[in-house]
Amino acid sequence: MINYIIRRFLILPFILFGVTILVFSMIMMLGPYQRLSTYINDPAQLKGQDMDKLISKYGLDDPWYEQYSRWIGGVVHGDFGWSESAGQPVTEAIFSRFPATLELALFAVIPVVMGGIWLGVLSAVHHNQKFDHIIRIISTIGWSFPTFVFGLLVLMIFYGVLGWFPPGRLSADAAAIIRSAEFVRYTGLNVLDGILNLEINVVFDAFRHLIGPIVTLAIVWWSYILRITRSSMLETLRKDYIRTARAKGVAEKFVINKHARRNALIPVVTVAGPMVLGLLGGVVIVESVFGYRGIGQYAAQAAQQLDYSGILGVAMYFSFLLILINLIVDVSYAVIDPRIRLE
Amino acid sequence: MEWKEILTRLIKNKLSLFGLIIILFFVLVAVFAPYLAPPRSPEDAYEIPRAGWQVEPQPPREGYLFGTAQGSYDIFYGMVWGTRTAFRIGVIVVGLSSLFGIIIGTLSAYYGGIIDEFFMRITDVFMSIPFLVAAMVLTTILGKGLDNVMIALVTFGWMGTARLMRSQVLEIKNEEFVQASIALGASDTRIIFKHIIANCIFPVLIQAFMRMGSMVITASALSFLGVGAPEGYADWGQMITFARDWILGGQGSALKYWYTVVIPGTAIMLFSLSWNLIGDAFRDILDPKLN
Amino acid sequence: MQKKLVVLLTLVLVFSVFSVVGAQEEVNSPNTFTYVNIGDQSTLDPHFAYDTGSSEVIYQVYETLIGYDGESVKNFTPLLSTEVPSQENGLISEDGSDYTFLIREGVEFSNGNSLTAEDVKYSFLRGMISDRSGGPIWMLYEPLFGAGFAGLSDVTADVVGVEDPKQLTDEQAEKVLAVLEDKITVDGNRVTFHLESPYPPFLNILAQGASWGSILDKEWSIEQGAWDGTAADIVASHDPVKEEDPLFDKMMGTGPFVLTEWVNGDHVVFNRNNNYWRGPANFKTAIIRNVDEWSTRKLMLLRGDADMIYAPTQYRSQVEGEDGIVVTTGIPALQNMNMILNWDITTEGNSYIGSGKLDGEGIPSDFFADEDVRKAFSYAFNYEAFIEQVRMGEAIQLRGPIVDPLLGYDENSKVYSLNLEKAEEHFQKAFDGELWETGFTMDLVYNSGNDPRKTAADMLKSYIERINPKFNINVRGVQWSTYLDASVRGTLPASFGGWLADFPDPHNFVQPFLDSSGYYANRRGDTYKNWADEVGINDLIAEGISTTDSARREEIYKKLQKMSIDNAIDLWIDQPTKSNTRRTWVKGWYPNAVRPGVDFYSMDKVAE
């Protein structure tokens, strides 16, 4: 196990290097004038621009390896460059948005994963009954409509009509409290900071803003987890030891909870890692619908504007995260799977 | 198992029969598209004709069975020709990316060692960039257009299959019959094709079925982010993206523009539902443990 | 339990479908004004900013010497100067080349420093020295140094023969600074600008809404690391990289608001300046939020969380008529849209012109150099339908580059209208009839996501292909980056253009569109440039900007308008008007075509 973790960390630099080369070579397929579009994002701004001067100012016509070594030279010194699409240094752009996305992901993961598993188990237990069919149809709907459709509908119902869950991350009053000198930003997570500063209004307000995106994410991801849990649960239920347990007269509830569910969860855990990452990356659309300023929104913006230092920054940050998450998954795999645990 | 038998069992199962019927329906629509919605000129048949220049969507009326979307694009026409696009995206993207995945997964697992290490690290690199972001960058660079969308989806869509294939092959490689062939000195090609791929392909196939439907959705996410099919191209994803700014209705009626969402939404849903149903049934049939 | 859930969900759905968002009786958060817009801000440095998003923020914090009188874009009111210079009050010299401003006394910056004439001089000098490439500062150089001067590099080349200001030696820098300082002199509380020659729109260039005319606090600016006032610092201060610019994210002005927080692309928060010399604003906090999703903006307005939003014309009908919402339409905007015809298409490596020859499979390089082709295109566009359906009636047809209500705009001048017979006639005459026989194939390219442009291209395609089956037009949407590249290389046969006024004067339209050295002339190629010179367009433009005689100017601009139409230089499409969408409790809002976005200070929130 320890060896495995060490190996993981040893290959980390190679993967990060590979990612930078991949992204860089994609972007360098474009000519200098095309890449200048990073700096001019509105046709109206073209007027009066001396484009050749701008190109040489940003060094866009240098050979790609020079541009790459300039960039990597900065990275070695902890400088990921300037992100034109964010109007901030890349590191700052990522770290200022990271708490928002983390907060969203943290609060979303529990209802999404637990709800998905719960529904999946129910659906498997009621295999081929009406309940199963309904769940499957609903989950297909959840999976078949683009996320933005649900996002807008959630916004319409819970904000437009009911007025409960507004878009954005904070309302103006709560934001003013957070800006005030007495308020200490411990973590950047609004809910947590609100609790630590004993500002119940901030906690409440931050939470209100989280629900819309969470509900939207839940609709989309439930169907995914549900599907995996269901099929894995079905498979487990047909296994010999379950049949034996049933034959022995063990109560059905006990069979499902104690024997079947645990084993059925193994494949779920394997997909949980990529899923958390998917949640983080997949917030692109949810964040833009809800006007929620996070990493997803930034990634989309940087990609559209061909802001290469921005994309590289996000990609490297995601690689780090991916490796970290996979590590956690492997450990929990060992915890759940008795065969590995015993070794 | 015989293909004939698989088919019989697919038809016998109510759910997969339902799936098959829908797929068949879509196939018919795709085949007869030129008769259902005659194009103005055969060269740009995928260009959705515009009923006028009006921006606001207009409800179904004579001549425009499903109404017109934002920009007066004929929804019926877009749906009919979009069926062809859906199949094209599904088949090409899933086919090519699965093929890549199978090749890389098999080679890694079969040869192991440095080759395995090399391919798996490349897989890691490709998996490290969030899929949507990577696809966006590539389509932005290649330019708008369905071909470019497909290239991007294939480029960043093969890793799942590769990993699945690799784990399958690893399992089978140590089975006696494979080891026996190796001992008998059979050529690598023969072993790979005869024993390994034939025995590992089914999980990959099932996975491919499941991905067919989701490709249309991914393409629509790209349309939403502004890098999908060109404006006015017959594509379901684009048709539903046209609804973006009208979903919530207006002037007191939330349902004012329902047709802009419901029609393309239903088509995408049925398409992906039927592939899923067939995939599910397929799994039940092919999983030897269940027989 | 499941049944209950289903019932609940159904109820929520039914409720949401049939209920109309209720109107609020009271004013939401009376102490905060929230404006929800799209886009972001590029910088907060008034000398660097050249986009509406940035200027909107700068407008709230910094002030200029003079302002506009309400809705007018021609009449001024005093602001930081106590009088508007004119020849009558003697503050503009007889020959029209010296402008004097009397600086208001008792005005303080929000940090408590007093405004002095020295601050004013420093502000303009700092702008002229920083002069970033592609920035707005050319507007100061042209009047102060004369035509042909567009930046510091032109001055250094002229004075000490150095093309690049970054290469100046200290000694040369001294000379350059001396020349600059001669142009703006201070005498007590009087600041005088010495122009090279009369320049009629000079006051417009300095007036409210022009962020480059903002007055900075000299002491504060130097503390932040901006140009320190010495010649030695010119090299370091010239053409800064955006992120290293000391004023990139800091502001200190005399205006009604102070910057509290700027989170680029998300929100800008201002707090009231309680010592503002015209009296404090009506609310404590003003917020500009950036939300790109239209539906989200719409809901925020309907809920009353936004007091004012940006509502694009095409979606406005969704909120019009809702309780508590008021929409003002038909606000003139100094901007236009046209299709620039490339008279001299670059054929090398060009995939937009088919074969590149007159053989039915493509178009030749000089396709649009033929006047009849241009006229035929002009007749094959449905201006009326474009304005009625795409702009939903909120635009007027262009009559050349100059827009309403600027000098030279004449609402009775000749324009084109859709006339397929005339178009056919001109196509038959083009290339001595050859074009009609062989036909042509070309691409019309627009940048993806710009729907009006796509519709305009579709329209041309639909009408022109109707005229002759041998005519083929492919409409192609390309990424913004590709579009930018192609328009620079001159490979686009026709491209869309638009201009948003820097200052309200016809010169700001004729120069970029018609002059051989203008921005859009480049897109038409050398054939156009030579032609414009031959027929005297350049001379007319030069005369127009150096004449103070208003009647003569009008005559000149009318003539230029007429030439643009008679020769069908471009396809002149329209001048869109703007609208404003806000809650009824917002009082005091007024339109002004030059102002970048909102003016928080003028507004208040009062319940009905």
Short description:
The complex is a heterotrimer of chains A (343), B (291) and C (608). Chain A has 343 residues and is mainly α.
Oligomer state equals heterotrimer
**Mean pLDDT rating of chain C:** 91
So, the CATH homologous superfamily of chain B? Answer: MetI-like
The percentage helix of chain C is: 25-40%
Report strand % of chain B: under 5%
Subcellular location (chain B): Cell membrane
Protein name (chain B): Peptide/nickel transport system permease protein
Transmembrane segments (chain B): 15-37, 86-113, 125-143, 191-210, 257-278
Membrane topology (chain B): Multi-pass membrane protein
What does this structure look like?
The complex is a heterotrimer of chains A (343), B (291) and C (608). Chain A is 76% helix and 1% strand. With 343 residues, chain A is an all-alpha fold. The longest helix of chain A is centred in the middle third of the chain and has 38 residues, at 200-237. In chain A, a hairpin with a 4-residue loop joins strand 1 and strand 2. Chain B has one domain (3-290): MetI-like (MetI-like fold, Orthogonal Bundle). Chain B starts with a helix and ends in a 5-residue tail after the last helix. The model of chain B has no long low-confidence stretch (mean pLDDT 86). In chain B, helix 2 (14-31) crosses helix 4, helix 4 (75-111) packs antiparallel against helix 10 (188-224) and helix 10 packs antiparallel against helix 12 (258-286). The radius of gyration of chain B is 22 Å and the shape is elongated. Chain C is of the alpha+beta class and 608 residues long. Chain C folds into three domains: 70-240, Dipeptide-binding Protein, Domain 1 (Dipeptide-binding Protein, domain 1, Alpha-Beta Complex); 265-332 and 578-605, Periplasmic binding protein-like II (D-Maltodextrin-Binding Protein, domain 2), CATH 3.40.190; 335-576, Dipeptide-binding Protein, Domain 3 (Dipeptide-binding Protein, domain 3, Roll), CATH 3.10.105. Chain C has a seven-stranded mixed beta sheet, sandwiched between helices. In chain C, strands 13-17-12-16 form a four-stranded antiparallel beta sheet. The longest helix of chain C is centred in the first third of the chain and has 17 residues, at 2-18. Chain C is globular. Chain C starts with a helix and ends with a strand. The model of chain C is unreliable at 16-24 (pLDDT under 50). Chains in contact: A-B, A-C, B-C. At the A-C interface, helix 2, helix 3, strand 2, helix 7 and helix 8 of A face helix 1, strand 7, strand 9, helix 10 and helix 17 of C. Chain C: Residues 1-23 form the signal peptide. Chain C: It comes from Halanaerobium saccharolyticum. Chain C: One of its GO terms (molecular function) is peptide transmembrane transporter activity. Chain C: Residues 92-519 form the Solute-binding protein family domain.
